[in-house]
Amino acid sequence: MHENNLIHGDLTTSNMLMVPREDGQKELVMIDFGLSKGNNNNEAKGVDLYVLERALLSTHSGAPKLFSAIMRAYKEENRKNSESAVAKYEEVRARGRKRTMVIKQGAEGKLYIGEYKGEKCLVKERFQKKYRHPELDAQLTKERIRAEVKAIGKCAGLGIRTPKVFGHDLNDRKIYMEYFEEAETAKDYINRLISSEDRASSGTT
């Protein structure tokens, strides 16, 4: 696509289909071109690559190795323009690192990668509930943050592995915790094991 100056605009694995071929292998099919456009600007190509990387890191285990393989193939397939596009991707990536990366978000709050005293950490931030009286909402939020920090500490004291709590800010509604590099949820781990077993039983790799 980029070799022909076509920008997808939403380059995530949700917009890719793995379609079976007659030889039993899978073929990648791109879908959802609602944000696509013709553009030979390397900045746009860099953003495309960065969006793909963020999508992989937030939803797939083993993403760093997978994305490295994708980038090697990208450079091989886009010999003419890959150097400039990859350089722009690195610039976009550097800018993106200065922003928070949301890992999970629910009704009560969000979990994202941030910093605590200059060190990379996991931040849990509780949302303000606008339907509640401000003073009541602040009181309830503070109580829940204190209770969560206390529960984490109690588990750690009992020998149950939990993230270390570096600190918390009741006014900003945040808890700062240890960040585990290249960790995956138990859900992703189990899904990966089941997927591996299914491939082994079917004789595919």
UniProtKB/TrEMBL annotation:
EC number(s) recorded for this UniProt protein: 2.7.11.1
Catalytic activity: L-seryl-[protein] + ATP = O-phospho-L-seryl-[protein] + ADP + H(+); L-threonyl-[protein] + ATP = O-phospho-L-threonyl-[protein] + ADP + H(+)
InterPro entries, A to Z: Kinase-like_dom_sf, Prot_kinase_dom, Tyr_kinase_AS
Family label: Belongs to the protein kinase superfamily. BUD32 family.
Keywords attached to this entry: ATP-binding, Kinase, Nucleotide-binding, Serine/threonine-protein kinase, Transferase, tRNA processing
Source organism: Phlebotomus papatasi
Gene3D superfamilies attached to this UniProt entry: Phosphorylase Kinase, domain 1, Transferase(Phosphotransferase) domain 1
One term under GO cellular component: cytosol
GO biological process, one term: tRNA processing
Top-level division of the source organism's lineage: Eukaryota
Name of protein: non-specific serine/threonine protein kinase
Gene Ontology molecular functions: ATP binding; protein serine/threonine kinase activity
